[in-house]
Amino acid sequence: MATRRDLLKLGLVAGGTGLLPPGRAAAQHKEFLKFLCPPDDRPRELDGQPPSPPARPFVAELFVPPVMQPVASLSPPPDPSAHQRYEEFAPRKLYQINETEFLWQYHPEGPYANGSWSWGFQSGGYEPSTPGPTYQARYGEPVLVRRVNNLPTVGHSNVFWALPSTTSHLHNGHTASESDGNPVDWIDSGEYWDHHYANFPAGFDPLQKLTTLWYHDHRLDFTASNVYAGLAGFYLLFDEDDAGDTGDENTGWHLPSFPKYDIPLILQDIKFAEIPGEGAQVVFDAWNTDGMLGDRMTVNRRITPYFQVEARKYRFRLLNGGPSRFYELFLRSSRKVNGTDEPPFIAITGDGNFLPQPVLTQGIFLGVGQRVDVIMDFSAYKPGDQIFLHNLLAQTNGAGPSGARLRFSDPQSFLMRFDVVPATGPDNSRIPDSFRPWPAVDLADVKRHRTWTFDYEGGLWTINNRVMDPNRIDAGIDQNSAEIWTLRNGGRNWSHPIHSHFVEFLLLAVNGKPYKPSHIQDVDDRELTVVEYFQQAPEKRRPVRSFFGGKRRDIAILLPGDEVKVYMRWPDFLGKYVMHCHNVVHEDHAMMIRWDIVEPGKGFDTPRDVPGGAPHVEVRPAAPTIEDSGSGNGGEK
Ligand SMILES: [Cu+2]
Q1: 149 C-alpha vs ligand 1 centroid, how far in Å?
Q2: Which residue, 260, 490, 531, 625, is most buried by CB atoms nearer than 10 A?
């Protein structure tokens, strides 16, 4: 019988584009894989597959993940030499989080009632969950997270289509390479990895602060399956003192208090099949390399849930958790309030950062991995009123949005329902007039220009005609320098949400036109600056049609034929990172590059092999086996 290591290798070879030089990979795989990626003008339709078992909407209650609690100590203690700048940012809190397999109840009725096999996270005295517990992190408060892989060994998990070999990326954390959750820094069942999150803004620039981050699996070739299995959760970064985003509505910006009135919502579409004797189980299509769509819309992994809200303001952190669907979100209320039954959102962030000013918007567009925090004000509603969250973007295949719109009445458009109940106390939250300006673009620091073209070749998803090879460095970036990257969609029909790790970028141009963040186009098609917008009397303000994020982001949406130009700079750490398509099915097949931050003056343009014989997996700083980790599977000894 094959050993676990053999199976892992087999898994790698099967997913395998990362192991071969690009030319050989393309040549060898072309004959076998050409059917996987259809021609540009013929994306494969996913309709026609048997639907998931029925599930009545608004029967499941929204799951709100618990808040992570620190532990007093870790045994063995963390190894300071495994981390960059560890002593300088000595952890002030220690956490332990365990990756486990469990039955998760997506819906309380019918074939869903007994639960579906899932992977997720468990910590402290909490039950395991997906999404996992939410970190309440703070600038100025470094933490260390010990992540233990307590999943069953290969071949022994009920989630048979994912790989119990894991690495966890803190999406868009400003994180040292060894703690970033690089795709090759994986651990197997029974092992652990220490992540050091220093929690300071890039370049110590307060304008580079972040707010809504999330953690998710990033295993090379298996990201889609492992995130789809449930390995995701939120990491919320608050400001360090009594100013700004404190998490307390009585201080700073007075945003609704965490965690009671500040709630993260991960949107994921899941496909189920009813298995005799096992009920509804999650279906993963390993043969589909276009992208996967589910027909059951989940919020925090409950199918179309309801949530009781007090008649007051809330902050919701909307996250598109993939794997492949794009969303455009709208609200609809059961009766007209303030003259409308289509209330707007008040958007306060785009991806990981605060906007200069809040934006009133009718719709919110989210590519996979993107976040927008919104304030929703239920204070004008009466107990018994209902507000529905809809997705009106139609999508029938992995190519991206079809261009058609769903109607509010379409059952597929419903994501969740907010049920208004009386307020239980005073609402001391406010909506500030302004947050933080964008960080500056300093063109004098630009050392290089690079162009990345996202396309496909021989059944594989490519960047600059190459597939992912973790032993090839596609870009060497001088530490502390800035660069301008042009991200180009080479396909005529495919949409790609492109994510680069470590720092957020500033948008310079979209399709050749300079990006003008100060301009908003409202629903009456008037163009006006944010300042002009807010100078209007409140009753004269009209929402924007749809909010696509601000100037600063960590994901660039490349719709068919799009080209965007972005500015980035890379201070503080050295080491290996990645850029990839966040349609995680594209990422796994193998639309990803490795780029490294190198010492100033040692940067390079032409791809080169990893020095020193290019081991597939580099020497790992900290991954000893935990004896008797308590889950019952314990891993190999
Ligand atoms: Cu893509």
Answers
A1: 28
A2: 490
Ligand 1 centre to CA of 193 (Å) is: 29
φ/ψ (deg, to 5) at 502: 85, -50
| 44 Cα–ligand 1 center, Å | 15
Winning range, highest mean pLDDT, from 10-24, 29-43, 245-259: 245-259
Strand-pair partners of 53: none
- Any idea which of 39-53, 302-316, 471-485, 573-587 has the lowest mean pLDDT? 39-53
SS3 28: helix
Cα 459 to averaged position of ligand 1 atoms, centre (Å) = 13
CA of 591 to the centre of ligand 1 (A): 7
* 626 has a pLDDT exceeding 50: no
B/e letters for 383-413, b = 16+ CB within 10 Å, e = fewer, are eebebbbbbbbbbebbbbbeeeebeeeeebb
Distances (CA, A) of 188 to 193, 307, 470, 590, 633: 10, 37, 18, 22, 12
Q: Prior bond to 259 cis, omega within 30?
A: yes
153 alpha carbon to ligand 1 midpoint, in Å? 30
CA pair distance 413, 392, nearest whole angstrom: 6
Task: State the distance from the centre of ligand 1 to the C-alpha of 257, rounded, in angstroms.
Answer: 36
The alpha carbon dihedral of 450, 456, 457, 459 has a sign of positive
Residues by chain with Cβ below 5 Å of ion ligand 1: 496, 581, 583, 586
Please give the Cα distance from 475 to 578 (Å, whole number). 10
8-state DSSP, 56: -
**Tens-place pLDDT, residues 384-406:** 999 999 999 999 988 888 888 89
d(CA 570, CA 483): 9
Contacts of residue 155, Cβ cutoff 8 Å, sequence gap at least 6: 4, 7
User: How far is ligand 1, taken at its centre, from the CA of residue 588, in Å?
Assistant: 10
Q: Is 613 exposed, middle or buried (0-12, 13-18, 19+ CB in 10 A)?
A: exposed
CA dihedral 176, 178, 182, 186 (to 10 degrees): -160
End-to-end alpha carbon distance in the chain: 18
Separation of alpha carbons 192 and 207, rounded Å: 34
Q: State the DSSP string of 137-165.
A: EETT--EEEEEEE-SPPTT--SSTTS-S-
List the structure tokens of 196.
Answer: 């050091």
Q: Which two tokens stand for residue 138?
A: 């703070």
Name the pTM for this structure.
0.89
Q: What's the 495 CA to ligand 1 centre distance in angstroms? A: 6
Cα–Cα distance measured from residue 421 to residue 309, given in angstroms and rounded to the nearest whole number: 6
SS3 content of the chain, % helix, strand, coil (to 5): 10, 35, 50
Could you read off the pLDDT of 131-182 as tens digits, one per residue?
A: 999 999 999 999 999 999 999 999 999 999 999 999 999 999 999 999 999 9
